[in-house]
Amino acid sequence: MRKKRIFKTILGVSLLVLMTVPIFTRPSYVEAVSNANTLGELKKELANYKAQREKALSNKNQTQSQINASRNSIAVAKTEIDNNRKKIEDSKKEIEKLDKEIEETDQKIKDLMVAKQLSEGDNHYLEYIFGATSISDFIIRTSMSEQLASYNDDLITSFEEKIEENKQLQADLAKREKDLDKQILDLEAAIDSLGNKVDAFSEEALKFEDEIKSTQELVNFYTKQGCKDNEALTTCVKVVSDTGFARPLKKGVRTSNYGYRWHPTQGVYKLHNGVDIGGNAEGTPVYSIAKGMVGKIIRKSSCGGNMVYIYHTVNGVQYTSTYMHLLHIKDGLKVGDMVDSTTQIGTVGGGASTSSRYGGYDTCTTGAHLHLSLAKGWYGKTYVSYSSWIANLLDPGLKQYVNIPGYGKYFYSRTW
Ligand SMILES: [Zn+2]
Hints:
Blueprint: H1 2-19, H2 39-120, H3 125-130, H4 135-224, H5 233-236, E1 241-242, E2 252-256, E3 259-262, E4 269-272, E5 275-278, E6 285-287, E7 292-301, E8 305-314, E9 317-329, E10 338-339, E11 344-348, E12 370-376, H6 386-392, E13 393-394, E14 410-411
Parallel strand pairs: 1-8
Antiparallel strand pairs: 2-5, 2-14, 3-4, 5-12, 6-11, 7-8, 7-10, 8-9, 9-11, 9-12, 12-13
Helix pairs in contact: 2-4
Zinc ion binds near residues 256, 272, 274, 276 and 371.
């Protein structure tokens, strides 16, 4: 009777697993790539990143100043164009005025010529026009009218010269406007390419910002661990040694194996980098699988959710255990904390509370479960790259490690 019920449960769970296979791919955070062997070298790396960020920022500011200067030059050129256009307008009016004066002066000359001709002929205007009282008076007056005509002639010539000057001025100003237009175009093109440079420098500074942040975290970690500047990073951290692993949950059932599999949603053949343990509701306590130290905490990753990494030394060998899709990370748990197998590090999540299937942030889980990974070495300390972690992964279900029973089989204790 009991056996039948268990069989039915297993069948039910298996069907559930088929519908909601939890998945895991690369977490969406950036790993620092460090080549430092000692804390001193790590500090140098940090200083170097900071210097490079400062340089990028200074380049950015310098380029921004060049952009501002170019914008000012454009504004100056545009003002000059406006002023020159006003000058052209004034010059055109001046020409109009001169034309009118020429016309008027021309009329005066014509009048004088008529008067002169009349004065030379037998005409009753003779006496009237110049009011000559004698011949000599007449001669004086005639000569005066000639002088006046000549003066007006000169006046017209000077007006015409002024018109020519104005026309020349207008031509010069038009040419100047062409030159300024070209200058503005060149400046705008320069601003465009400088703008791209500013963007590139900003991006560079931001990149170093990330490096600085993660390297600073490492420096803080090793300093807190009491590492000396000249001490090897691989040996200065003292993690309490243990003799074996316990299971991370009081009960559970393996719902997915470590190893290559067809990805349930991506349709590709890829590594599932741990085992999935189902059979627990969200909120069920999750424990460290051995004595160790919290090495890394990642919150709300878009693939993996809340994650805790713990460094162990078991029988002289270094390991990193990883717990993913946690609903909550235990309050106050932080990097550098010493833990043992009785320490609760968080609770099971990955279901309706966190899965993106139900509107949550974790796209790599479709049902409540714990994803447990175990790797050799300390991921983030003895090596930093994701590919190294993958290369060092172990199947934590194997007997010599955590002893999670085979696919679909339940366990009911943390020890075995
Ligand atoms: Zn998994």
